[in-house]
Amino acid sequence: MPVEFLTDDEAYGRFVAVPSQADLERVFFLDDEDRKLVDLRRGEHMKAGFALQLVTVRWLGTFLEDPLDVPGEVLDFVAGQLGIADPSVVKQYAGRVKTKSDHQQQIRRKYGLRDFAEAEAELAGWVAARAWTSGDGPKAIFLDAMTWLRERKVLLPGVTTLARLVARVRHDTTHRLWRVLEALLTPTQRRMLDRLLEVPPGLRVSDLERWRKGPPPHGSGPAIIAALDQVAEIQGLGLAGLGAEAAVPPRRLGELARYGMTGRSWASRLPEGAALTTAEPERGPASALA
């Protein structure tokens, strides 16, 4: 599953640029506890490789398939702290795959790093709450989910795993929104709103489209009368007391109202069981737009 919304500057789980000097000193610095753990290794290449894995997971939130796939500046910064005159000795570290995985397990235990599976359900709940209250797009939620995981010392999963979780939960939350709105309506009101999308015989647009466009923007007497007539028509639907404000977060209602004024009326009817994506403007039944 490609994650098209990530740019090259937002690559997932790998270095895309050399960390700044401030970041090197803040994240890649080996404190006394780090040094104690590193110094348990034998040989400069083992110490350098272990230290690279330690600072990499701290920076990226995940381990690299190739622990040596780091910018030269990172290697030099780590080697300098360890007093290693020739940083290239770290190439010997890649000789044994088991060494790499053993060191990762030791780092996990020491620093309390958790696997994604342990936090997946909690993250899904966070995404659902975020999507329900904000209606934010997939990129914003995806990037903030990365921060959420790292703040809780959870190792990042594969990029498609996280992207699918965000997409699935947002999809479910959007359908929940439609169900909540639909439940506010009586069967008669649903039929009435559906008819707003139909183009009456002899006319070119539906009532909903006509209301969206409004009367001509002139201050003349007839224009004012036409505007008042239109307000009376809308009020005549009797939907003012549905209680949507109490059932749906204000931001979501605001988004629906904006889309109702700009979207195409023919796209306002949601086919039964249709899949929704909020990567584009929210679409839903006429009841959501009225």
Describe what this molecule looks like in 3D:
This protein is an all-alpha fold and 290 residues long. The chain has 3 domains: 8-111, no CATH class; 116-182, no CATH class; 187-289, no CATH class. The protein is built from 14 helices and no strands. It has helices spanning 21-27, 32-38, 44-60, 72-82, 97-111, 116-134, 138-151, 159-183, 187-195, 207-213, 221-235, 244-247, 250-262, 286-289. Helix 3 (44-60) packs across helix 4 (72-82) and helix 6 (116-134) crosses helix 8 (159-183). The model is unreliable at 273-290 (pLDDT under 50).
Describe how the helices and strands are arranged.
Layout: H1 21-27, H2 32-38, H3 44-60, H4 72-82, H5 97-111, H6 116-134, H7 138-151, H8 159-183, H9 187-195, H10 207-213, H11 221-235, H12 244-247, H13 250-262, H14 286-289
Low-pLDDT segments, ≥5 res: 273-290
**Any idea how many domains?**
3
Mean pLDDT: 84
Strand percentage, roughly? Answer: under 5%
Largest sheet: none
Approximate helicity band: 55-70%
Number of H- or I-type helical stretches: 14
Q: Give the number of DSSP strands.
A: 0
What is the element string, with H for helices and E for strands?
A: HHHHHHHHHHHHHH
Summarize the structure.
By secondary structure, the protein is mainly alpha-helical. Helix content is 58%, strand content 0%.
